[in-house]
Amino acid sequence: MSLLFVENLAVSYGNIKAVRGVSLKVDEGERVCLIGANGAGKTTLLKAIVGMLPPAKGSVHFAGQSITHKPSFQIVRLGLAMVPEGRGIFSRLTVAENLAMGAYARRDDAAVRQETDAMYQRFERLGERRNQPAGQLSGGEQQMLAIGRALLSRPRLLLLDEPSMGLAPMMVEKIFDTLRDIAARGVSIFLVEQNARLALESCDRGYIMASGNITGAGTAATLIDDPAVQEAYFGA
Amino acid sequence: MPRSKRQVWLTFIALGMMLALLPFAVDFGLGRSWLRIMDLALLYVMLALGLNIVVGYAGLLDLGYIAFYAVGAYCYALLASPQFGLHLPFWAVLPIGAAVAGLFGVLLGAPTLRLRGDYLAIVTLGFGEIIRIFLNNLNAPVNITNGPQGINQIDPVSLWGVSLGKTHQLFGITLSAPHQYYFLFLLLTLLVVFVSLRLQDSRIGRAWAAIREDEVAAEAMGINVRNIKLLAFAMGATFGGLAGGLFAGFQGFISPESFNLMESIMILCMIVLGGMGNIPGVILGALLLTVLPEALRYTGNLQRAWLGHVVIDPSDLRMLLFGMALILVMLFRPAGLLPSRQRKRELVAKGDVAVQEQASVYDAKR
Fold first, then answer.
1. Which residue windows are transmembrane per the record (chain B) (predicted)?
2. Which of A20, A39, A165, B93 is a plausible cystine mate for A212, CB 3.0–4.6 Å?
């Protein structure tokens, strides 16, 4: 049984069909990416998975139960955390307050404190700036904060929407190193990216999305070598 | 600055003594009318703290807040006056009024869950007016609210058979009605302050802060945005209803006129001027904005003393000076007189973009 199982999911904005019957899955411990051009429907698909948009048809199952029509906040509590596009940082709250929000649904305060301290060691810059407003962090630091905050909800699956967007190349490398690290510790990852090469290089499998449909799928290695993928997504 | 426990206690005791002696000093020095103004000021502190939950904590701009004050006041008036011949005891009427107001809070909150900012402000403004217009017109075909005439002869607050409407002697001290109401209001204000403080540092308070900052991200943290928002409306409205009930008992007479839009705006001004989201700031704002307009009535005497005669009618000058004071505070202390931590940070965080760009370069080098 897959951890995340999406079947024939469709989402519409009024008359516009943004996602037209998408099926995909993420297994326990797997790193999966979804690549595609701007406007392919990737973000819409993610939002529908986590309950932020109502699906027109199809179903989403997570850890064996249907989450198709569940509200977002309940889905998060089941262990599916999302790092939204544009990071969704609480910019006027401090770094520490942001991290505390990530653990909002948890009651085991002692463990939360321990994990938060571990987070500060892992991301030194966050530790140094824990009492500063998150809005003052750099883009890369904010992305780290968003990931750290999502991890504090103790997710089984982490959904990331364009974590590389707007970041310096070296910072992007760092974010992807972190993601590999997280996966190595047993958290499954489902990553939506425009930066196809980087995404495929750090994942096990990939899906390709274009105009609301899945147009290709396979192991990361085969997709990287696929000439059609190379031409369409790696560019010059 | 480290403070010992003893110092904290001493501060508390000194503050308590001051608050206890204040009504006697005011009564002696400024007169009975000022004592009544102080009673009203305490009601406004409660109101402002209630609205602060909705606007300051949860970030929901409510321009019809006075409606809950009205609901609380009318509940009290209808259940303890000759209007229906009902004279329920204070301890029953006050909670009923607060609860009904809380219910109205949910009633307002439910249809406006998806609205934010300006849109929410317009709907709440409409809600406030609807309540007032209802109160104004519910005298026909069945007379419930007595319409624009309002409700008269409301029972004064009575505790354990002691009516606060009458003068009493206690340990040789003469306590007039405004004195007694002062102590009752002070006690309940302290309760409201206490609840506000506890809410601020609670899980609920954190959830409100998250919603205020970013609703979508809050939902992604596992916060039930709908319920937490409704709770903010309900809590704020309950405080409003509490203050309303006290107002009815204190005044003995209420009419729809007391609950107009200007009052809602005034309460909003109190928290904006004092410092949104910060309890001491909100209290200061409420006290200032109750006392200042009253104090400005005395400009006539000042003019006579300085210029020999009254040049500008004090009632004209009053609102002019008041408006100017508001503008000046907002110019020089845009986050309020005593801003909350977050507001302060927001103002410090100017030039964010430059800082961010520099930091990105720094990241890349690391």
1. 41-59, 66-84, 90-110, 117-135, 181-199, 230-253, 265-296
2. A20
**Per-residue pLDDT, B2:** 54
Q: Interface pTM (ipTM) of the complex?
A: 0.84
How would you label A136-173 residue by residue, b for 16+ Cβ within 10 Å and e otherwise? bbbbbbbbbbbbbbbbbbbbbbbbbbbbbeebbeebbe
Give pLDDT, residue A235.
66
- H-helix or E-strand spanning residue A34: strand A31-36
CATH number of the structural domain spanning residue B63: 1.10.3470
Interface of B with A (CB under 8 A): 203, 206-207, 209-210, 213-214, 216-226, 342, 345-346, 348-349, 352, 355-365
- DSSP E strands: which ranges in chain B? 80-81, 86-87, 158-159, 162-163, 168-170, 173-175
Residue of B nearest to A75 (CA): B222
Task: Kindly state the tokens that stand for A224.
Answer: 């990287």
Q: What does the pLDDT read at residue B149?
A: 85
Bridge partners of residue A190, in order along the sequence: A32, A159
Number of helices and strands (H, E) in chain A? 10, 10
H/E stretch holding A19 reads strand A16-26
Looking at domain A4-192, which of 2.60.40.10, 3.40.50.80, 3.30.530.20, 3.40.50.300 is its CATH number?
3.40.50.300
Contact A224, A200 (CB under 8 A): yes
